[in-house]
Write the structure tokens for this entry.
Amino acid sequence: MEYLTHLAVLVGIYSILALSLNLVLGYAGIISVTHAAFFGLGAYTSAILTTVYDLNFFLAALCGVLVAAIISLFVGTVLSKFRGDFVALGSVGFNVIVWSVFLNVQELTRGPLGIPGIGRPNLEFGIWNYEFSSNVSFLVLSVIFVALVYFLCQFIEKSSFGRALKAIREDEEALQVFGYRTLHYKLAVFVIGAGLASIAGALFASYITFIDPSTFTINESIFLLSVVILGGLASNRGALIGALALVLLPEFLRFVGFPSDIAAQMRQVVYGVMLIVLMLYRPQGLVGEYKL
Amino acid sequence: MDIVPQLIANSLIAGSIYAILTLGFNLTYSTAKFIDIGFGVETAIGGYSVFYLCKTLGLPLYFGIFLGLFCSGLVSFLAYRFIYKPLRARKASGTVLLIASLGVLTALQALVAILFTSQFQTLSGLIQANRVFELLGGTFTAVQLSIFCTVLILSVLLAFLLKGTLFGKAITAISDDEEVAKIVGINTERVMGEVFFISGMIGGLAGILIGFDTGIEPIMGLSWLLAAVVAAIVGGIGNLYGGLVGAYLLAFAENFGIWKISGEWKMAIAFGLLIIFLVWRPRGLFPR
Amino acid sequence: MTSTILQTKHLFKHFDGVKAVDHLSVSFEKGKITSIIGPNGSGKSTLINLLTGLVPLDAGEVIIAHSLHFTRVKSHEVAGFGLTRTFQDVRLFEQLSVLDNILVVLTERGVFASLFETHGTLHLAQAEEVLKKMGLWEKRHSLAINLSYGQRKLLEIARVLAMTRSARTGRAADIIFFDEPFAGLFPEMRKVVVSVMKELRAEGRTQILVEHNMELIRELSDEVVVLDAGELLAQGVPNEVLAKREVIEAYLGE
């Protein structure tokens, strides 16, 4: 039971990541391979603020959103100057740079040692104090976050803003002629996506209670890319399905009986083959609305 | 002790490996016109083939290297034949090809890890003694000198191949305009398959040399590939000889960049350079 | 009585040393249909691209309604001044539904306003009217990419008809560029487009048409502008201009 709860929390955290990346990738068509950087920024900001400055989790998470938003605004502005597939390469670059900061600015992040002893979230109203220390209570908290993020994404998808994003993905230049400042849209969605990813980061840090740079590498960004592409681009439901499938896959491989080091590699083989097969036969993913 | 000569020496060695990889990357990019991330895994394929053939099976070194090059070429060809070719046939976008090639890299490097474990391996035991030379205040090993020579030989060979042979003229024609090349009767698919084979061999060669110089691990592909892409963009993507300049420039920037700060920043420096170029000079130093 | 609504002064653009538009000074009259003709590569499409900001201009000036002077045209601003266009190579939002292709030019353009759009029903009614007129209402849920060639052309024209300068004012565009709207259309579809253009003229909207078919040009145009190698060769009423010797030579010399 404890094991299932643990998996459910992870699925929840990855759902938030997938939903937020889908806004950027599926709706606006920005091939961003830097999502793990914002995931990490959220995790590190809230981890540092809660452990060193004893800030409440929710306030710390909010600060994480702010940090991710400011940095993503800058990153997005730079990326908007690139054409085509170079956006993907430039975004890889940002992921590497942010990861290097996690690894090397040891005064702040403790570098490769990571930050241990991160507390679980707690709510305080006067004398009433509740800590989400059990995994079940944490699961409830993450489900609430996933629901909020999901409804936000649905709201965006149904709005005129969402329609404009999709039009940007199809033909940005033509859309400009119809009166849209497309740069503002792309920056807005990039910042929203980064902010939501940072919330997932705060949840992750507080759930695992330990973070180190190895979680926030390009490989993680590539993994998130696979999650969204598998589930289906431009579909919020697809993002949830993708997160569920790919978080559970390694567990399934372990269940089948691969030894754990082989299982870890099998997982990568499956991701790789999956990307190839999807590109060849189903570029819109399982339930997606947009073919790359 | 003055550190500058050694920094120059290190830059030249790293730059030479980048140069080899950039040549291979640019060769496919200029013909197939997409960013082939899968190219990176050929380094591991080449390196581990030699590791298996020579260290485990005990085959003679030159035979092993020959077979290793063949293996990496073959893998690259097969990826083209069964993945990129059908995608290109239905006019898939560069993004689709890029993601598919990312899949190739991810799957194959994990496969290598399953076969050979993800441990770091070195090929240096296969040669008797790696002599050390002193040159103008910097030290080089024999392997490193041969890496440097490989770049020279490879550049000359490629130049001959591209300028002096019919095959090379076909490649040039395809990179100028694939449709026109088809119309004048070039079998573009066949040529492209051969290009992928050659670039795979070049990737494998780089992997083998890395194995002799430092060492190989299954996941080496991505970071080497990214360095090659940065070098290619700096030099002007698709421009073979611009890529050489880009490769050495990148190596010098990295090695002098980490002079005063930790070596862990190396990749960040490379990508800082990439972003600077993409913003201010997106077509590189020598645009095609 | 005529009045100029759109004017260029010494407009200049070159691509890799080739002068696409060469110090072109031309003016377009309000409420009329002006056809731009000229051999291939004479700068017709480049002119439209310059006027809608798709291609930056090298030198010269664009003047809208006598009062607004531009030496740089920003594509996201032209809609606000009442300019809109179709594209020679039909540029739709391919993986959006037909309906969404229309709605996107009706709704709020600002980031925040578009998130909290409040005129959904009104826009839907407007889109329905336009799509019914062009015979595409039945297809409203299909993706644009799945339409036939003719339907795609019609959808582009529908989009131009529907476009508002901004969602707030709801004012329609009053300077419309049609870049080869008839190319490849069946005769009955052609008739639809002709009648649409005549209707727009009756409403007093200015139309600038790039077209090769002389019959259609004679039928529709109030004025003809002839370009050759990016320069203005002639301008005037169709019968006079099309009878000029240099115009005929420019065409025959093609």
